Amino acid sequence: MPRHKTLPDETVLGVALQLLHTGGPEALTFAGLARASGLAAATLVQRFGSKAQLKQAALLHAWDRLDEKTSQLAADIARTPEGAVDLLVALSGDYGAIESYAEGLLILREDLRDPLLRARGARWRDALVDVLDTCLAERGGQRQGLGQLMASQWQGSLVWWGFEPNCPVADHVGRELRQFVAAVMPKRAGT
Fold it and tell me: DNA-binding: is it a keyword of this entry (predicted)?
């Protein structure tokens, strides 16, 4: 690939994320990123400092993208239990096939090892749970805690799908979350 004089950090971090997703954390090296981006390895070292800092910057960029996607999806859904399901199904679509999901778990391991990345994950969870709580609130009332339960159910359904990925992940997640909603929010007689 021809050498570029400059690329914005966002573009470089996008390439770094692609390397992480296709080859796991060990695939993200300055030499590999130089080949994939067309920038000199020395330029990348000047920008990011160390491999650990590069990995952290790439994963923070991934959290930024997830925050943005979650906000965009949340703005477009109905504030209903079905809207909550729609949001989580849409977020699940990024996982793709089982191989991609499994690689994503290796990346999650990196998030869990780094206190700054763990804090970003917790902030995203809080924002997601807030949207889910709004969707699950009964008319005129609050259903505090159901958003967290639904988010936990969602994550669990992804793990269980990983053991038997015999249908698209979105189909599995949608079915599981609709069962969850039916169990925790049964329809009342006469409504």
Answer: yes
Residues of the chain with pLDDT under 70: 1-5, 139-144, 188-191
* Structural domains for the chain: 9-184 (1.10.357.10)
Query: Which pTM does this prediction carry?
Result: 0.87
Report the alpha-carbon distance of residue 147 to residue 129 in Å, rounded.
5
Kindly state the tokens that stand for 23. Answer: 């080859």
